Structures are given as structure tokens and as C-alpha cells.
């Protein structure tokens, strides 16, 4: 295939555009590796040895720290509207626990089905093992909580703590001893953290192939006109 003067500019434009698209794909692969390292670090934190609940948990240093706490539920709680694949609609139960030392903390006990939400939570002593977390799932589309029924539409540790009079963090239960009837713990894990960079990379590489194909077609048409 010979080049004519009319073909040089489209060829350069096509090659430059493909180079940009390939570069974006490579950048997404690099982002994927970075995200995998972050997820591995989070998994390592989640699975570390269980510690005693810190006196003043810090969001930067203690996020995902595995801890244990013992105490009793005060009866104050917030219900976060959610659903699961197996059980359908229901709520996350965010309850206030008064620990043996007299602290009031928020514990995310887990999921309760809509039909069982009215079942009273136990008033006796509980031992909860789980991970510290500071979820803030609220965005511009989240409705305000229905405080008349204590129903929330996303977890917001700071706002819930203020509403319920507890310390501003959550202990997400992994195990509850004894188990709370009707509640299934929803432990912290990294599966809910998106890592879509491979899909993005494939998209950019695919666009680069399409771009080169369109460039080749354009050059062919220009050559046909010149023959």
C-alpha cells in the first residue's frame, strides 16, 4: 500500500489516537495493580489478630481493626433499609451496646428480614467480635432518615452516633455470642470494594483496535479515490 500526501494526515491522526487509547488502557492496568495492593492490605487488616477495643478508635489508623467487645444492648437502635439475595428485603440492625466498662458504642449486628424485624433483641450480656469501621454511604441521592421509625437508608457512623448517643464508629459484627435470633451477621470484607480497572482497560484497548480499523478503512477509501 503506497502513501499519498492526502493519506499522511489521517494516518498520523489515527496512530496518535490509537496511542492515546492504548496509553489509557495501560494506565488502567496500572490502576488495577494498585487497587489489588490496596485490597490485599485491607484483607490483611481484616484478618489480623483480634485486639481489645481501643480507648479512642481513630479512623485513619484503626479502620478495619479486628476487636472484641462485651456488654449488653441498651435497646436503642437504627434500622438501615437493605436486602440480600437469599432473604430479600430487610434491615441492617445498628444497635447501641453498653460495654462492661460503661462505654456506649454502635454495633452493626447484621441483617434481619423484614418479617422478623419486630422480634425483640436480647437484653443479656453479649460478646461481639468484628471489625471497626466508619462507613459513610450517604450521597446526594440518599433520602434523609425517617427518625420517627428509626429507619435509615444508608450507614453514616457520625450521624448515627449523634442520633443514638454513642461513640462515632461502628463495630461490624463477625460473630455474636450468644447468637441473636433472626439476625445474620454481615462481616466486613473487601468483596464490596469495586475493582473494575480490568474492564476499563479492555474497553480502551478495544477502542484502540476499532480506531485503527477505522483509520485503515479511511486510508483505503482515500487510496481508492486516488487510483
Q: Please write the CATH class name of the largest domain.
A: Mainly Beta
User: What's the number of extended β-strand segments?
Assistant: 8
Our measurement of the CA-to-CA distance between the termini, rounded to an integer number of angstroms, reads 12 Å
Q: Write down the overall geometry.
A: elongated
Q: Quote the average pLDDT.
A: 91
CATH architecture of the largest domain: Beta Barrel
The string of secondary-structure elements, in order, is HEHEEEEEHEEH
Largest beta sheet: what is the strand line-up? 2-3-4-7-5
Distinct helical segment count = 4
3D architecture notes:
The protein is of the alpha/beta class. It has 2 domains: 5-41 and 194-226; 65-187, OB fold (Dihydrolipoamide Acetyltransferase, E2P) (Beta Barrel), CATH 2.40.50. 37% of the residues lie in helices and 28% in strands. It has 4 helices and 8 strands. It has helices at residues 5-46, 59-62, 157-164, 197-226; strands spanning 51-52, 66-84, 88-99, 104-113, 125-133, 151-152, 170-177, 183-184. The protein has a 5-stranded mixed β-barrel with strand order 2-3-4-7-5. It starts with a helix and ends with a helix. The mean pLDDT is 91.
Amino acid at each position: 500500500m503506497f502513501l499519498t500526501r492526502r493519506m499522511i494526515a489521517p494516518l498520523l491522526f489515527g496512530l496518535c489516537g490509537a496511542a492515546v487509547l492504548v496509553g489509557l488502557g495501560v494506565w488502567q492496568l496500572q490502576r488495577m495493580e494498585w487497587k489489588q495492593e490496596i485490597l490485599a492490605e485491607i484483607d490483611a487488616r481484616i484478618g489480623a489478630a483480634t485486639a481489645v477495643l481501643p480507648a479512642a478508635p481513630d479512623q485513619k489508623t484503626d479502620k478495619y481493626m479486628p476487636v472484641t467487645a462485651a456488654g449488653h444492648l441498651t435497646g436503642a437502635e437504627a434500622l438501615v433499609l437493605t436486602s440480600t439475595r437469599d432473604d430479600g428485603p430487610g434491615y441492617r440492625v445498628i444497635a447501641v451496646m453498653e460495654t462492661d466498662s460503661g462505654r456506649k458504642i454502635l454495633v452493626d449486628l447484621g441483617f434481619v428480614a423484614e418479617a422478623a424485624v419486630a422480634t425483640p433483641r436480647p437484653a443479656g450480656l453479649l460478646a461481639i467480635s468484628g471489625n471497626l469501621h466508619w462507613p459513610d454511604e450517604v450521597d446526594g441521592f440518599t433520602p434523609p432518615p425517617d427518625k420517627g421509625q428509626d429507619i435509615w437508608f444508608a450507614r453514616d457512623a457520625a450521624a448515627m452516633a449523634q442520633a443514638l448517643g454513642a461513640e462515632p464508629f461502628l463495630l461490624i459484627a463477625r460473630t455474636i455470642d450468644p447468637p441473636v435470633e433472626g439476625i445474620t451477621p454481615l462481616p466486613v470484607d473487601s468483596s464490596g470494594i469495586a475493582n473494575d480497572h480490568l474492564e476499563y482497560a479492555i474497553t480502551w484497548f478495544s477502542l484502540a483496535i476499532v480506531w485503527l480499523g477505522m483509520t485503515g478503512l479511511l486510508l483505503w477509501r482515500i487510496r481508492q479515490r486516488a487510483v
